[in-house]
Structures are given as structure tokens and as C-alpha cells.
Amino acid sequence: MLLRTKESHVIVVSTDGSCLRNPGGASGWAWVNHDGTSRSGGLAAGTNQIAELMAVLEAVRSHPGDEPLTIQADSQYAIKCASEWVHGWRRKGWRTASGGPVQNLALIQGIADAIAARPGGVAFVWVRGHRGDEFNERADELAGIAARGVRDGSAGDDVGRAAAVASVGAAAGSRPAVASDEGVAAGSAPQALPGAAPGVASRGSVPVEELDVLF
């Protein structure tokens, strides 16, 4: 007898981050589901790395459930933090091979916790940025809009205050402000970020080979 199995639908989401002046400038993050829904937010001060990690964190938290999730990102740093380097850092007590602190630790731990809490698996795919990929380009656009909104104050006082808190180390339970929410159902907002990154790398999204010195 032939047994039919139900194939799981794979959710595909593109993420991106933007920092207008790296490091320390207004920053934005965004994710774009390939079904057309999206979300973005801004930070008053950050780095390229923080923005990219925020985009991944919010993407995972905004897509709970049993269905497999594939995140497409143009940041090899964010992908490797979330899928490779995190395991070694955890084994070393969240220290690098040289004994130094892991940069952007709270964000990386938040991503790890979000992935562990998700019943469906999470996979990562690197895509080359600014090469015409529809969803990557849209995520880049939304992240830039969010960053400029925080810089110019057009995102509103609440957004600016929340973003400023998140960028310097928020208390547990706070979350970066959402600047734009396109087509996301009510009740699907991601959980609070458990503190912002305490150790911010100053180099932004550097090539992966250069990051070896951090280990």
C-alpha cells in the first residue's frame, strides 16, 4: 500500500540591515516574506552587524510554527553567527577562541533561542546583495527607509526613544521599535528582545575571512 505524506510548505524570508554611518549611525532592519508581507524597524545608533542580526532575529520570531523556514540574507556574518559560529561560542561559555567576548552577544543568543523554540527547522541561504533579487532589494529598501526615519525623526518620538534604548543595552523585556509593518497579521509581533548587544563591533559587516581574528 502506498502511503502519502503531506509535504511541508517552506516559508522563505529575505532579510537585510542598513547603517547610515557605520559605526554609530542610525540603523534599520527589515524582513520580507516571499508571500509579500514584511516588517521593518529602526535603531537610533548601531552598526551594520547589529542591523543584519536584528533582521534575522525579527524574521525568526515573526514566523513561528511547524513549517520549515528559510532565511535568505546577503550578510555572511549574520548567517554564520546564527548557524555556525554560535555552536562553538556556546561550548566556550560565550567566549571566542582567544578568550575575548563575543560581539553582539545578546542578539546572537536571542537568535539561537528563537530558533530553538521554533518547532519547524530554520535554514539559511546566502544571496549576493544588490544584484536584482526582488526580495533582497525590497528588504534593503525597507531597512534604509527605517534607518532614515529614525535619523530624521519621522518615525515618531516613541520609535526614537525605543531605538535609542535598544542600541545601548536595553533592560530585559524591551524591544526595538517597529517603524513599518506591511501585511502582518495582528498578534504576530515578535517577542521582546532580551537586551541589546553589550559589545558592539566597530567594523560593521566585514568580510568573513577578516572575522577569523575574532575567534
Description of the molecule:
The chain has 215 residues and is an alpha/beta fold. The protein has a single domain (11-214), classed as 2-Layer Sandwich (Nucleotidyltransferase, domain 5). Helices cover 34% and strands 17% of the residues. It has five helices and six strands, in the order βββαβααβααβ. The chain has helices at residues 48-61, 76-91, 105-117, 134-152, 157-168; strands spanning 11-19, 27-33, 38-43, 69-73, 122-126, 178-182. The chain has a six-stranded mixed sheet. α1 (48-61) runs parallel beside α3 (105-117). The chain starts with 10 loop residues before the first strand and ends in a 33-residue tail after the last strand.
Please write the CATH class name.
Alpha Beta
How far apart are the first and last residues' alpha carbons, in Å?
54 Å
Please state the overall shape, judged from the principal axes of the Cα atoms: globular
As residue ranges, the low-confidence spans are: 156-179, 183-215
CATH superfamily: Ribonuclease H-like superfamily/Ribonuclease H
Number of strands: 6
Task: Look at the helices and sheets and give the structural class.
Answer: alpha/beta
The amount of helix comes to: 25-40%
